[in-house]
Design goal:
Length: 656
């Protein structure tokens, strides 16, 4: 019995040896058979052609390939590889998983081409094919964000080798005749550390970068640093300049990312990113280049089935400032975003020392004592934009300005020189004060006009701190619906700051600086409310090259602003939003259009509430607007409008 068992055991061992020897001898044939079968399946599934000149196994876990190419059907070549040797982990192979231990490549060239809407890589993002693949394999297609992140990182860290040498590697992007080329002479990954020089070419731009860091596939952690390899040179990011009209440059950037143990069904990514010497330009941000000396974020990102969020444990460092932001994006049909920022009291000077000059030119050099605190809350649900909530609250604690910066923010308190612009070009310059014969103090402006304008533009001007409650949120919701800056939600103070201190470009820089200057003027009482309203009524545009209440009263009614009737006052208030289009409210015979009646009665009721007319007069109010003077000629003969504007421009340029 023991002899038979011994013989059986020997037979099993011999069979295993012979089988192993057979497999070893036939490994190349088996490899090519499996590879060809997989290639055929990929070709049918993704519409790509995969070919190789040579494919062999030097051992059970070592694969060598030469002359590999990937060409999407009817497209340009996506990938070419001269040669590669890949060493695989043995035990994952037994479970059908591919895990790369070492890789050595020569002459890898990846070219991503796009012309118009046609590219040679669109098969990678074809949802229809992905859904069909899921049905064929029985794999669940609908995967939450946590699952997608986990799968992507699992594949990434499984395929990333422990050791690698990649020689003469080229990555190219060609889009609409613009070509970007990244060339790495030699990329080396050894003992979890990687390093490589990168030569970058884009049109007439040349750059040499260096990247280095560590990669630990076992703990799923990666960190690195990218900097210019040229002496005194900076990194200028390619691609965005020719395609988006933007420019981004920096001295260096460092980053780290680690995937921690999942918390239930959620994924947690932690790490940091730090940039030095950052400069950004885009017309939508600012007309000038925005500089940032030092910026860093220590982040904690959570992802669930339907949401991704930046946890409030994250910290953003911005020059001398630091704060903890919270941002959550949840998919409920359409996206639902919530965000908050809380900054407890901090030295006020830290804010003004940290602001980029291109975004806040007028407060550069401003000195302040005391402390500031800040809170922001936003809730934007694209399923219900009418429910949008937004609040931004900057508070001072013993705050005071000790020295003005580049601009005297109290200039409106005294007589000052004002320049009006059209299409970003100066058209009128005049003094706002007694030395100007056309200046009209509040005492000479009809209370009817004062109140009609206020009720039309900013009814709570004398009671709020520069920001009209609720208006900013309403304007933001409207702008998001329109997909552009369509409504500003500006208070009278905001309009003044825009016209007196800032340029007319609608960009993020102007809105941010506008908000800060408004807060400084209002919180520090740099100009009284009465004086601000007086300035406002003397500089706002009321027609083609018609500025201020005195000019407007004479232009439309041939009378002084102190003598205006209710109808005339409401008319002037009604055209402030579009002063150059005042003719649109009139019939060809210069009578008021009937569709204006509702607006006039709304303002009349508000005037009655302020005691400037009786309620009975307001309810039965019927506007009587009799245009006279130059404005009447423009209503009856629209062709005179351009002539008037031209002549007025010449007159005012000769008589400042």
């Amino acid at each position: 019995m023991n002899r038979k068992l011994k013989q059986f055991g020997i037979g099993i061992v011999l069979l295993a040896i012979l089988s192993g020897a057979g497999l070893f001898l036939l490994r190349g044939i088996l490899l090519r058979h499996v590879a060809d079968k997989r290639i055929a399946a990929c070709s049918a599934r993704y519409g790509i052609g995969i070919a190789y000149a040579s494919l062999k196994m030097s051992s059970f876990t070592s694969v060598c390939v030469e002359g590999l190419s990937v060409v999407p059907f009817g497209r340009d070549t996506l990938l070419r590889l001269a040669s590669a040797e890949v060493k695989l982990d043995f035990f994952p192979l037994l479970h059908g998983k591919l895990s790369i231990r070492e890789i050595d490549t020569e002459g890898l060239v990846c070219t991503f081409k796009k012309q118009g809407v046609v590219s040679n890589y669109d098969f990678l993002f074809s949802r229809r094919r992905q859904e069909r693949n899921g049905r064929e394999t029985g794999e669940e297609v609908s995967v939450g964000y946590a699952g997608r992140i986990d799968r992507a990182l699992e594949v990434l860290f499984r395929l990333l080798p422990e050791d690698a040498v990649m020689r003469r590697t080229v990555l190219m992007s060609e889009r609409d005749s613009v070509c970007i080329r990244f060339y790495m002479p030699e990329f080396v990954l050894d003992d979890r550390r990687y390093a490589s020089d990168i030569e970058v070419t884009e049109e007439d731009m040349r750059g040499k970068w260096h990247i280095g860091g560590t990669l630990d596939t076992g703990t799923r952690r990666i960190e690195g640093r990218l900097a210019s390899a040229g002496q005194g040179r900076r990194i200028v990011l390619p691609y965005i300049r020719p395609h988006y009209g933007a420019a981004v440059a920096f001295d260096s950037i460092a980053f780290s990312m680690a995937q921690t143990e999942p918390e239930g069904k959620e994924q947690l990514l932690q790490g940091n990113a730090e940039v030095s010497g950052l400069e950004v330009y885009h017309a939508a941000l600012s007309p000038d280049t925005i500089g940032l000396d030092q910026g860093k974020i220590d982040y904690s990102i959570r992802a669930g089935e339907r949401f991704i969020e930046l946890d409030s444990a994250s910290t953003v460092y911005f020059n001398r400032l630091s704060f903890h932001p919270f941002i959550r994006a949840e998919k409920e049909g359409r996206w639902h975003f919530t965000a908050s920022v809380h900054c407890p009291p901090f030295p006020a000077q830290d804010l003004f020392a940290s602001l980029p000059a291109a975004l806040f030119r007028h407060v550069q050099g401003l000195q302040a004592d005391g402390k500031l605190s800040y809170d922001l809350r936003a809730d934007i649900d694209f399923n219900r934009l009418d429910s949008l909530k937004f609040s931004s609250d900057l508070r001072g604690h013993g705050f005071r300005i000790t020295r003005m910066g580049a601009t005297d923010l109290a200039r409106m308190s005294e007589e000052f020189e004002y320049t009006a612009y059209e299409h970003n070009q100066p058209v009128r310059t005049f003094f706002v004060g007694p030395s100007n014969p056309g200046f009209c103090p509040l005492s000479r402006i009809s209370p009817l006009l004062q109140m009609a304008v206020m009720q039309s533009e900013d009814g709570s001007f004398f009671y709020h701190d520069g920001f009209y409650p609720g208006a900013i949120g309403e304007a933001l919701a409207y702008d998001l619906q329109k997909g552009r800056f369509a409504r500003g939600g500006s208070s009278i103070t905001m309009q003044l700051v825009k016209n007196v201190f800032l340029n007319r470009h609608k960009n993020i820089a102007r809105k941010l600086e506008e908000a800060l200057i408004v807060w400084l003027i209002e919180s520090q009482h740099l100009t009284s409310k009465e004086r601000m309203y007086e300035v406002y009524l003397n500089i706002i545009e009321w027609g083609p090259l018609v500025y201020g209440a005195a000019e407007a009263s004479r232009f439309y009614f041939d009378k002084e602003p102190s003598d205006l009737t209710v109808s005339e006052a409401i008319f002037l208030a009604s055209i402030i939003p579009k002063p150059k289009h005042f003719r649109s409210v009139f019939n060809p015979d210069a009578t008021l259009r009937g569709n204006q009646l509702d607006y006039y009665r709304v303002i009349a009721r508000r005037l009655a509430a302020k005691g400037l007319m009786t309620e009975e007069e307001a309810e039965t109010f019927c506007p009587d607007v009799q245009i006279k003077g130059k404005a009447r000629n423009m209503v009856l003969r629209p062709d005179t409008a351009a002539c008037y504007s031209s002549n007025a421009r010449v007159f005012f340029s000769n008589h400042p």
